Write the structure tokens for this entry.
Amino acid sequence: MGNFHGRAGWRGKRAAVARIHPQMRLWPAGAMLLALAWPAIAQTLLPWSEEERAAIARHGPWPPPPVRDPSNRISGMPAGIVLGEYLFNDPRLSADGRMSCSTCHIEGRDWGDGRARAMGRGELDRRTQTLWNVGYGHWFGWDGAGDSLWAQSIRPILDPREMAGDAARVARLLREDPALACGYQRAYGEKPGTDDEKLLVDTAKAMAAFQATLVSPRTPFDAFHDALQAGDAATAAHYPLAAQRGLKIFIAANCSACHFGPRFTNGEFGDVGIPFSRGRARSMRGGWTGSTSSPTARSTCSAATTTIRPARRPGGPAMFSACTATSANFACSACVRRDRDRSCTTATWRRSKMW
């Protein structure tokens, strides 16, 4: 082997390589041209017809304005949102004290659980739906059984296959726990009364107020949408070329018949390619009949939480400032169930840790 040390050695090595493959002399220049061309390759705006631009315009802007539920008087109220978040994470609403709403609707898993089928006290019929942007809906659940978010929030509490709770348990918790009684008074302007059914509904309304704050963050599509509407071709060209091609297919295939609007769903029910429908989805002995709720096509994967709720977390002055000092040392337990052995790990949050 030759000596490749020093300038002379390097020239000898380059000559030897060129003799093996003369075209390799052009590789440095080719690499430089590719590097210079990359911005142009990566930032290409496909041509969009007026019809396509109009279709894209209907998918924004994001996020839409907050929607308040006229049937829920604490919808959008900070005190109601704080109370609702606390109740959402409280496993004491369930019969065995081990399951809360957040057991299946996990913030770190896009407010779902990542399972093919939800796991309550046993395996359920369907997968857990995400809670992202749920406050903008008008039907709730895969079969649309809930016509309000608070009505839907009652169902898993009472369902014997899920939390298996009851109105008496929920009402007793609100009346006997000093901090929850305080939070209830803060939200509703009165102490928890003796009507168990009313307290169950009020619990669900508080949880609905919290869930309505779960708004997914903006995506690259939203930046593309806004730039295209503003005539900013340079910014719109940053949208990946593959995504632009996919969007053209999405429009041409009329996917927006079901997945339209800023949420990429009409919130209704349908079956693609199945002409016969017996109504909304129902499970019958393991089978399926009828149409199911059109899921959102808006990207929410691994999205960071973006909310309109107050910056304060439950347990701070927003929860307790209107109540007596007896609530100052309140600690709330929450159970996180492991998927396989269903064992329970309890964590405690005290007031000082909830900011």
Observations:
- The radius of gyration is 28 Å.
- The domain at 78-215+305-353 is CATH 1.10.760.10 (Cytochrome Bc1 Complex; Chain D, domain 2).
- DSSP finds 13 helices and six strands in the chain.
- Residues 73 and 205 are 8 Å apart (CA to CA).
